[in-house]
Amino acid sequence: MSLINPFSMQGKHVLVTGASSGIGREVAIWLSQQGARITLVARDAARLDATLSQLAGIDHGIEVVDFLADTDISQWLKAVAKKTVPFDGMVHAAGVQMPMPIRATSMAHWEKIMATNVTSGFSLIKAFRQKGVCAADSSIVLISSVMAQAGEPALLCYCASKGAVEGMVRAAAVELAREGIRVNAVTPGVVQTELVDTLQSLVGAESMQAIAQRHPLGFGKPLDVAYAVNYLLSPAARWVTGTTLVVDGGYLA
């Protein structure tokens, strides 16, 4: 008797934003290794090409898009689906952190973080649900952060943006369930990417050591997040929507 793997991504078409580095790149690579066809999205064509060269399988593609520009995301995504095939999943990993103490935070700083981390996610959810863009029984995964639920100095804007992401996930999940679209978030703790290096340069080694000690299992790796994303995109999570899957090495505990 043959066994069906409920975690399989074989033959699925998945859009991955923020795919030029960090968590987005690792998610794209892992999903391709599980049989998915990947459309990579980011602002930097050269870095997208670097990710593309690491993907397993064939028929992958890249799309260079700046979510802070005046691009009509709904029309763009409809055009991408039309020239390829409808999407079975979408992973929105693009985002910025940009630590800044409250006293030095300008409205421009606040608005850039909100536009990158929140508004882009709304635009993509709205675009994804269009007829012809997504396949039946599709899944959206947004990358949140433990900072949605726990504060850190100099990260007020980032914490607020990730809290908004998790609220958006719950509302979208309820509304889009009738359309056969599941919406969830993965909420990582500190993961060893370029963002961690940037954070350490800003807060100092001593502060980073204190943050590390709040992760009982230590800092995570991008692949830890990719595994969680795989689950939420797969048929194994067919009864999971509107939730945030915490992958944080025990930080919130």
Which properties best describe this structure?
alpha/beta, seven-stranded parallel beta sheet, 253 residues, Rossmann fold, 42% helix
Secondary-structure topology with pairs:
Elements: E1 13-17, H1 22-33, E2 37-42, H2 45-52, E3 61-64, H3 73-83, E4 87-92, H4 107-128, E5 134-143, H5 156-176, E6 181-188, H6 194-203, H7 205-213, H8 222-233, E7 244-247
Parallel strand pairs: 1-2, 1-4, 2-3, 4-5, 5-6, 6-7
Helix pairs in contact: 1-8, 3-4, 4-5, 6-7
Q: What is the mean pLDDT?
A: 94
- Give the domain tally: 1
Sketch the topology as an H/E string, one letter per element.
EHEHEHEHEHEHHHE
CATH class call = Alpha Beta
Main β sheet profile: 7 strands, parallel
Number of strands: 7
What structural class do the secondary elements suggest? alpha/beta
Determine the N-to-C terminus distance: 42 Å
Strand order of the largest sheet: 3-2-1-4-5-6-7
Shape descriptor: globular
User: What does the radius of gyration come to?
Assistant: 18 Å
* CATH homologous superfamily caption: NAD(P)-binding Rossmann-like Domain
CATH architecture: 3-Layer(aba) Sandwich
Q: What percentage of amino acids are in beta strands? A: 15-25%
CATH fold group: Rossmann fold
Number of helices: 8
